[in-house]
Amino acid sequence: MKIILLITFASLFLGLWAIPSQSDIAEDEGRIVGGNATTIERFPYVAQLYHANVFFGGATIISPKWVLTAGHCTYGQNTSDVTLRVGATPFNQTRNEAIIVAEIHIHPRYNDTTVDYDISILRLQKDLVFGRRIHSVPLPPRNVVLSAGTAATVVGWGRLSYQGERPTQLQQVSVPIITNVECARRYANTTEVYVTDRVLCAGFQQGGRDACNGDSGGPLTVSGVLFGLVSNGIGCADGRYPGTYTNVSSLRSYISSITGL
Description:
Blueprint: E1 12-13, E2 16-17, E3 36-37, E4 46-51, E5 54-61, E6 66-69, H1 71-74, E7 82-86, E8 99-106, E9 120-124, E10 145-146, E11 151-156, E12 171-178, H2 180-186, E13 199-202, E14 219-222, E15 225-232, E16 243-247, H3 252-259
Parallel strand pairs: 2-10
Antiparallel strand pairs: 1-2, 3-12, 4-5, 4-7, 5-6, 6-9, 7-8, 8-9, 11-12, 11-14, 12-13, 13-16, 14-15, 15-16
Protein backbone atom coordinates (compact mmCIF):
# COMPACT_ATOMS: atom_id res chain seq x y z
CA MET A 1 0.00 0.00 0.00
CA LYS A 2 1.28 3.49 -0.76
CA ILE A 3 1.37 5.36 2.52
CA ILE A 4 3.32 6.52 0.29
CA LEU A 5 -5.17 16.82 -9.10
CA LEU A 6 -10.73 25.39 -14.92
CA ILE A 7 -11.96 23.04 -17.29
CA THR A 8 -14.59 24.27 -19.78
CA PHE A 9 -17.67 22.09 -19.94
CA ALA A 10 -17.50 22.27 -23.72
CA SER A 11 -14.79 19.64 -23.43
CA LEU A 12 -17.12 17.19 -21.71
CA PHE A 13 -18.94 14.89 -24.14
CA LEU A 14 -20.80 11.68 -23.34
CA GLY A 15 -18.97 11.45 -20.03
CA LEU A 16 -15.49 11.50 -21.57
CA TRP A 17 -13.14 14.31 -20.55
CA ALA A 18 -10.91 15.29 -23.47
CA ILE A 19 -7.66 16.69 -22.04
CA PRO A 20 -4.03 16.81 -23.28
CA SER A 21 -2.83 13.29 -24.01
CA GLN A 22 0.23 11.29 -23.03
CA SER A 23 2.14 12.82 -25.93
CA ASP A 24 1.82 16.21 -24.19
CA ILE A 25 3.68 14.99 -21.08
CA ALA A 26 7.31 16.13 -21.16
CA GLU A 27 9.69 13.20 -21.41
CA ASP A 28 12.64 14.89 -19.68
CA GLU A 29 11.28 15.36 -16.15
CA GLY A 30 14.10 14.60 -13.91
CA ARG A 31 11.47 12.82 -9.16
CA ILE A 32 7.64 11.81 -6.12
CA VAL A 33 9.42 9.07 -8.49
CA GLY A 34 10.68 10.45 -11.80
CA GLY A 35 9.36 13.97 -11.25
CA ASN A 36 10.93 17.25 -10.22
CA ALA A 37 10.89 19.81 -7.45
CA THR A 38 8.11 22.39 -7.41
CA THR A 39 6.70 25.01 -5.05
CA ILE A 40 3.61 25.32 -2.89
CA GLU A 41 2.66 28.47 -4.83
CA ARG A 42 2.01 26.27 -7.87
CA PHE A 43 0.03 23.73 -5.85
CA PRO A 44 -1.38 25.63 -2.84
CA TYR A 45 -4.02 22.97 -2.24
CA VAL A 46 -1.62 20.21 -1.17
CA ALA A 47 -1.09 19.65 2.57
CA GLN A 48 1.02 17.43 4.82
CA LEU A 49 -0.79 14.93 7.05
CA TYR A 50 0.64 13.95 10.46
CA HIS A 51 -0.16 11.20 12.97
CA ALA A 52 1.03 12.13 16.46
CA ASN A 53 3.36 14.72 14.91
CA VAL A 54 4.95 12.16 12.57
CA PHE A 55 4.57 12.73 8.81
CA PHE A 56 2.20 10.16 7.33
CA GLY A 57 1.11 11.34 3.89
CA GLY A 58 -0.63 14.00 1.87
CA ALA A 59 -3.99 15.74 1.92
CA THR A 60 -5.88 18.02 -0.45
CA ILE A 61 -7.66 21.28 0.42
CA ILE A 62 -11.15 21.64 -1.13
CA SER A 63 -12.46 24.60 0.92
CA PRO A 64 -11.39 26.71 3.92
CA LYS A 65 -13.06 24.17 6.19
CA TRP A 66 -12.68 20.83 4.39
CA VAL A 67 -9.73 18.67 3.34
CA LEU A 68 -9.66 15.30 1.56
CA THR A 69 -7.22 12.48 2.09
CA ALA A 70 -7.11 8.73 1.48
CA GLY A 71 -9.27 6.59 3.76
CA HIS A 72 -6.33 4.39 4.69
CA CYS A 73 -4.51 7.49 5.98
CA THR A 74 -7.05 8.00 8.77
CA TYR A 75 -8.28 4.43 9.30
CA GLY A 76 -8.31 3.72 13.04
CA GLN A 77 -7.15 7.24 13.91
CA ASN A 78 -8.68 9.66 16.42
CA THR A 79 -9.01 13.36 15.65
CA SER A 80 -6.64 14.10 18.52
CA ASP A 81 -3.87 12.21 16.68
CA VAL A 82 -4.30 13.82 13.25
CA THR A 83 -2.98 17.25 12.26
CA LEU A 84 -2.14 19.04 9.01
CA ARG A 85 0.50 21.51 7.89
CA VAL A 86 -0.26 23.79 4.95
CA GLY A 87 1.46 26.47 2.91
CA ALA A 88 4.99 25.01 2.99
CA THR A 89 7.20 23.88 0.09
CA PRO A 90 9.89 22.16 2.25
CA PHE A 91 9.09 18.88 3.93
CA ASN A 92 8.30 19.07 7.68
CA GLN A 93 8.72 22.84 7.97
CA THR A 94 8.13 23.28 11.68
CA ARG A 95 7.44 27.01 11.55
CA ASN A 96 4.08 26.26 9.92
CA GLU A 97 1.62 25.73 12.76
CA ALA A 98 -0.22 22.43 13.06
CA ILE A 99 -3.83 22.60 11.85
CA ILE A 100 -6.20 20.79 14.21
CA VAL A 101 -8.75 18.37 12.75
CA ALA A 102 -12.21 18.54 14.35
CA GLU A 103 -13.91 15.66 12.49
CA ILE A 104 -12.85 12.65 10.43
CA HIS A 105 -15.42 11.26 7.97
CA ILE A 106 -13.98 8.06 6.51
CA HIS A 107 -16.30 6.56 3.89
CA PRO A 108 -18.67 4.12 5.62
CA ARG A 109 -17.94 1.51 2.94
CA TYR A 110 -14.16 1.83 3.17
CA ASN A 111 -12.57 -1.61 3.14
CA ASP A 112 -9.07 -1.90 4.59
CA THR A 113 -8.48 -5.19 2.76
CA THR A 114 -9.45 -4.13 -0.76
CA VAL A 115 -8.81 -0.40 -0.11
CA ASP A 116 -12.11 0.34 -1.89
CA TYR A 117 -13.89 3.65 -1.16
CA ASP A 118 -10.50 4.97 -0.12
CA ILE A 119 -11.51 8.47 0.93
CA SER A 120 -11.62 10.42 4.17
CA ILE A 121 -13.03 13.93 4.61
CA LEU A 122 -11.53 16.09 7.36
CA ARG A 123 -13.27 19.10 8.89
CA LEU A 124 -10.82 21.59 10.31
CA GLN A 125 -11.28 23.19 13.71
CA LYS A 126 -10.62 26.64 12.22
CA ASP A 127 -11.13 27.82 8.65
CA LEU A 128 -7.97 28.25 6.61
CA VAL A 129 -7.07 31.76 5.47
CA PHE A 130 -6.52 31.53 1.73
CA GLY A 131 -3.67 33.26 -0.04
CA ARG A 132 -0.83 32.59 -2.46
CA ARG A 133 0.40 29.50 -0.56
CA ILE A 134 -2.91 28.14 0.74
CA HIS A 135 -5.94 27.61 -1.48
CA SER A 136 -8.52 25.04 -2.55
CA VAL A 137 -8.62 22.95 -5.71
CA PRO A 138 -11.84 22.68 -7.78
CA LEU A 139 -13.78 19.42 -7.60
CA PRO A 140 -14.88 17.61 -10.78
CA PRO A 141 -18.45 16.95 -11.91
CA ARG A 142 -19.93 13.59 -10.96
CA ASN A 143 -19.15 10.36 -12.82
CA VAL A 144 -16.71 11.77 -15.37
CA VAL A 145 -14.70 9.16 -17.30
CA LEU A 146 -11.24 10.39 -18.23
CA SER A 147 -9.95 9.27 -21.63
CA ALA A 148 -6.93 6.97 -21.77
CA GLY A 149 -3.74 8.99 -22.19
CA THR A 150 -5.12 12.10 -20.49
CA ALA A 151 -2.24 13.96 -18.85
CA ALA A 152 -2.54 14.15 -15.06
CA THR A 153 -0.33 15.80 -12.44
CA VAL A 154 0.53 14.30 -9.05
CA VAL A 155 2.29 16.19 -6.25
CA GLY A 156 3.59 15.22 -2.83
CA TRP A 157 6.46 14.71 -0.41
CA GLY A 158 6.60 10.92 -0.85
CA ARG A 159 9.77 8.91 -1.35
CA LEU A 160 11.84 9.39 -4.50
CA SER A 161 12.01 5.61 -5.05
CA TYR A 162 10.56 2.50 -3.45
CA GLN A 163 12.05 2.38 0.08
CA GLY A 164 14.24 5.32 -0.97
CA GLU A 165 14.88 8.79 0.42
CA ARG A 166 12.23 11.38 1.17
CA PRO A 167 12.64 14.72 -0.65
CA THR A 168 13.28 17.98 1.14
CA GLN A 169 11.05 19.84 -1.34
CA LEU A 170 7.58 19.27 -2.78
CA GLN A 171 7.70 17.12 -5.92
CA GLN A 172 5.48 16.92 -9.01
CA VAL A 173 5.17 14.39 -11.82
CA SER A 174 3.00 14.00 -14.92
CA VAL A 175 1.45 10.61 -15.70
CA PRO A 176 -1.12 9.44 -18.29
CA ILE A 177 -4.51 8.04 -17.32
CA ILE A 178 -5.03 4.32 -17.97
CA THR A 179 -8.48 2.79 -18.46
CA ASN A 180 -9.83 0.68 -15.62
CA VAL A 181 -10.12 -2.28 -17.99
CA GLU A 182 -6.40 -2.12 -18.77
CA CYS A 183 -5.56 -1.42 -15.13
CA ALA A 184 -7.55 -4.45 -13.94
CA ARG A 185 -5.76 -6.60 -16.52
CA ARG A 186 -2.37 -5.49 -15.15
CA TYR A 187 -3.40 -6.39 -11.60
CA ALA A 188 -5.33 -9.55 -12.50
CA ASN A 189 -2.78 -11.93 -10.99
CA THR A 190 -2.32 -10.01 -7.75
CA THR A 191 -4.29 -9.77 -4.52
CA GLU A 192 -2.89 -6.44 -3.34
CA VAL A 193 -4.96 -4.14 -5.58
CA TYR A 194 -8.63 -4.29 -6.56
CA VAL A 195 -9.72 -2.07 -9.46
CA THR A 196 -13.31 -0.89 -8.93
CA ASP A 197 -15.35 2.07 -10.16
CA ARG A 198 -13.98 4.02 -7.18
CA VAL A 199 -10.46 3.65 -8.56
CA LEU A 200 -8.60 5.73 -11.15
CA CYS A 201 -5.34 4.43 -12.66
CA ALA A 202 -2.38 6.28 -14.15
CA GLY A 203 1.19 5.55 -15.17
CA PHE A 204 3.60 4.89 -18.01
CA GLN A 205 3.87 1.43 -19.55
CA GLN A 206 7.65 1.70 -19.22
CA GLY A 207 7.36 2.83 -15.61
CA GLY A 208 9.80 5.36 -14.21
CA ARG A 209 7.27 7.89 -12.87
CA ASP A 210 4.72 7.46 -10.13
CA ALA A 211 3.57 8.45 -6.69
CA CYS A 212 5.33 6.60 -3.88
CA ASN A 213 5.35 5.94 -0.13
CA GLY A 214 4.29 9.12 1.65
CA ASP A 215 2.22 10.57 -1.21
CA SER A 216 -1.08 8.92 -0.20
CA GLY A 217 -4.00 11.31 0.11
CA GLY A 218 -2.32 13.91 -2.08
CA PRO A 219 -3.88 15.22 -5.29
CA LEU A 220 -4.00 13.98 -8.85
CA THR A 221 -5.27 16.83 -11.02
CA VAL A 222 -6.22 17.25 -14.65
CA SER A 223 -6.06 20.84 -15.92
CA GLY A 224 -6.19 22.05 -12.32
CA VAL A 225 -9.25 20.01 -11.30
CA LEU A 226 -9.05 17.30 -8.61
CA PHE A 227 -9.79 13.89 -10.10
CA GLY A 228 -7.81 11.58 -7.83
CA LEU A 229 -6.20 11.04 -4.44
CA VAL A 230 -3.04 8.93 -4.23
CA SER A 231 -4.24 5.56 -2.94
CA ASN A 232 -2.53 2.26 -3.66
CA GLY A 233 -0.32 0.18 -5.92
CA ILE A 234 2.53 -2.32 -5.98
CA GLY A 235 5.97 -0.80 -5.55
CA CYS A 236 6.64 2.59 -7.12
CA ALA A 237 7.03 3.43 -10.82
CA ASP A 238 6.98 -0.25 -11.84
CA GLY A 239 5.69 -0.34 -15.42
CA ARG A 240 3.84 -3.58 -14.79
CA TYR A 241 1.62 -1.97 -12.16
CA PRO A 242 0.03 1.48 -12.66
CA GLY A 243 -0.51 3.78 -9.72
CA THR A 244 -4.06 3.65 -8.38
CA TYR A 245 -5.96 6.66 -7.09
CA THR A 246 -9.26 7.26 -5.36
CA ASN A 247 -11.69 8.34 -8.10
CA VAL A 248 -12.98 11.66 -6.76
CA SER A 249 -15.56 12.09 -9.52
CA SER A 250 -17.21 8.76 -8.69
CA LEU A 251 -17.42 9.80 -5.01
CA ARG A 252 -18.75 13.33 -5.52
CA SER A 253 -22.13 12.45 -4.01
CA TYR A 254 -20.46 11.34 -0.78
CA ILE A 255 -18.25 14.43 -0.68
CA SER A 256 -21.29 16.66 -1.20
CA SER A 257 -23.29 14.86 1.48
CA ILE A 258 -20.62 15.66 4.09
CA THR A 259 -19.36 19.07 2.95
CA GLY A 260 -22.22 20.58 0.95
CA LEU A 261 -19.75 21.27 -1.89
